[in-house]
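Pasting as-is:
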Amino acid sequence: MAEEKNLNPAPDNPSGQPVDAGMQSLVRMLQILFWGLRILIILVFAYLLFSGMFRVDEGKVAMLFRFGALQSRQIDPDTGPTSILVSGHWYWAWPYPIDRVKEMAADTSISVNTGNHFRPWVKAVPGQEEQELEVLRPGVDGYTITGDTNIMHAQWEVTYRVADASAYYLKFYDDHERSAGSKNTHKRGAEQIINCLLSEAVILEFATWKGEELWSTTRVLPDGTVENIKDRVQERLTQLLKEVGLGVQVQSVNIIAISPPDATRASFESVNASQEDGQKEILNAKTYRDKVILQAEGRKYQIINEAKSYQTRVVETVKADSSYFETVLAEYNRNPDTMLTALYTDALREVLGKVPNKYIVHRLPDGKQELRLQLSPVPEKDNRPQEPKP
């Protein structure tokens, strides 16, 4: 009976040839594997489709490389294809190593300083203040030469932002320059180039300034213009970056420290204090000068105004006297006796009005003279309102 069952054809065998149980299990296993492979292919395709979707973070830009070649995308129909992928859009790329997406800071400010390029090299000891060096060590300590052949130490810092990402990251950027824990002993890349250009700008600009001017950070040109060393270094650095085409925009250049060597610091401070005292005295003198000039100008205008008022008053008085004389002359020509009597009476009234005590002496008809004395002044009339009597 067992042999008859084994000789029966399998339901899935159309040829009718006998198939053992092992072959049937193998066929079923292959069918399961083929279905699993189909599902795996679908999953891989879905993974490739959705894993390639990416979005650029805010404040950053990105560039897409395909087998190392920079690719361009059409983001805005008005601007055309661009190799810089900005934030606010979704993009798709093939998985690595076919495509590689490089994100970079766009609006983030980056700061680079000169370090100890122009400062004495002193090994920092935690918990101790920086030691002063009495002697400058050539080849070890950093310094700059001023226009009057003095030595100055300085430390500068520049803050910039990336304005042209393609120029900055494709021509100058190094992926290892800002990576944490990088063991590169030879620095390279855009930041090192900016550091060198900043040092060059400082050296070139310091060579046109005197030591005392650098110590005070300002100078006065012959035409009276006041220059600041920080502004001059920033202008020179901007010009150097423009010539190199680094694709960055300088936001600010700051002085971290600027000082003469420790051995001559006291002399520089004494000279600087004397200059400050001199400038203070000059400022006080200018203030006093401006005050005196202002007072003189005010007095001048006062005298001129008084003279003009006196001139106007005298001219008006002369005009009034002239008009009065012409009127009196016309009346005198018409009636001389009457006019003389009127003039005599006016003159007598004016004279008597200036005399406090008056004595009247006149001759009587019988030839005698009579003298009348005013013993008390005539009481003045009281013009105040009288209160009603009850």
